[in-house]
Write a structure and sequence with these properties.
- The structure holds two protein chains of two kinds.
- By secondary structure, chain A is of the alpha+beta class.
- Chain A is 21% helix and 18% strand.
- Chain A has one domain: Alpha-Beta Plaits (2-Layer Sandwich).
- Chain A has a three-stranded mixed beta sheet. In chain A, strands 2-3 form a two-stranded antiparallel ribbon. A two-stranded antiparallel ribbon of chain A has the order 4-5.
- Chain A starts with 11 loop residues before the first strand and ends with a helix.
- Chain B has one domain: Formate dehydrogenase/DMSO reductase fold.
- Chain B has eleven helices and one strand; from the N terminus they run αααααααβαααα.
- The longest helix of chain B has 28 residues.
- Classes of the chains: A alpha+beta, B mainly alpha.
- The structure holds iron/sulfur cluster (SF4) (2 copies).
Chain lengths: 246, 291
Amino acid sequence: MTALPASTDKKLGLVIDLDTCVGCHGCVTSCKGWNTENYGVPLSDMDAYGADPSGTFLNRVFSYEVQPADKPAQTVHFPKSCLHCEDAPCVTVCPTGASYKRTEDGIVLVNEDRCIGCGLCAWACPYGARELDQAAGVMKKCTLCVDRIYNENLEEVDRVPSCVRTCPAGARHFGDLGDPDSDVSKLVAERGGFDLMPEQGTKPVNKYLPPRPKDTMETAGIPDLKPVATEAKGFLGWLDKALEKL
Amino acid sequence: MHPAPSVIIFTTFSGLGFGLLAWLGLGFPDVSGGTAFAFFFIAYALAVGGLLASTFHLGNRKNAIYAFSQWRTSWLSREGIASVMTLLVFAPYALSLIFADTALPFLGYLGSILALITVFTTSMIYTQLKTIPRWNMPLNPVLFLLYALSGGALMAGEAKVAGVLILLLTLLQVAAWKMGDDRLSSTGTDKGTATGLGSIGTVRMLESAHTARNYILDEMVHIIGRKHAQKLRMIAGILIGALPAAILLLTPAGHVTSFVALACHILGVIVGRWLFFAEAEHVVGMYYSRD
Ligand code: SF4
Ligand code: SF4
């Protein structure tokens, strides 16, 4: 049913640290790998070896430049995937019941056996988190690796989303954001985690941690260095003069 | 948004078809026998043809039956149900007019209401989207309904009523174009809120997440042709609008004038619908904006 649950038992989601992300796209690759072989149809590529390749991805990393008024610009790498919104507009617009939000953990999923590929859910998502697979014609989105996190066949350390497991910088954290005592909730409180486009009213579960303030270099009031030697001496001094006379 | 021919055709022709049905249900024009057949044939062809066109942009048509299931939350589902109900209610009404020369007014009124509900649900599919501020305003459903009613009146041969409705429609459409221009900025969404980095400074995309195009860009970040928007608005306004209204209100009613007005109007609506999609900015564009 595409009615949203009034509340969910847990709010599983990601916390993404924009201070730590180095923009390596490792999470993008591991996401594509895991999700091509597991939940739902594969994430197809079109014209993969041709002149105009494209493909379906559930997670993508942008790079932005932020220019403060009085400081040097800084580069911020910015991974973006489904934020598993509490008021997910993508779910309520779906005509078929294919899109739904789970009551037990808040994960937003697509049941591909019902999806007609109308694309309306992708229109309703402010974040560009849903892509229609061009081979299968059904909607694909981040599943929070629902087939890993509860998977008893995996080692415990692997029971997290593939992107979190892969990130070499430790920029991605996974947990229950509905529980104020969880590690992720504490991290968000401590670092001032924020929502993307809060004015859209989607109440995203995923949070982003801001880049830490950069050091400021004291530049005002420092006198310029004085020249240590105005006149060259010795052999080089002689050479300089000699060349000048020529 | 990408102005896909399938959705432009769908909204234009199904709107006209349901608009004509709404008038036929009220007994305008009062037809029976062969004439009734002709009118209902046209109305059904437009409504059904438009709906079929809309299925061309579906990726996975085999699950289409499920689209009738989520009427409690989804405007698209409601539209599916409303359109089928309208067509079903009008079937006995039309058959009785054609073969028995008998009007069944109750079914006619019910059908007319359902036809307008269908048009309203279509408009709400677009209006509900907060992500596309230009569509997300109350004037949008009003316009869809007026388009259907005035196009329908024109086809029903109610020249003077159509003229007045078209005049009103044109004024409101021009107002909607103007109002739409401020919608995106009035939501407060910009690159700063999209990335959450606005509190640090001015945000600029350094590198996109992907070098190739993708579904999001193809579908939602359509910017081609916007530079001609003003000219196209003029053309659409004249064709939808100014010209048909002048013909209908200032010349004596006749088949030829009505036909010219109708052809003009339909052409204008197609241009207008192209603009409706092409001009609509989706907030996801913020993530891709290079300026
Ligand atoms: S990020 Fe987009 S796809 Fe994910 S729940 Fe929110 S609106 Fe839906
Ligand atoms: S594309 Fe599929 S999941 Fe999305 S709204 Fe349409 S039917 Fe629902």
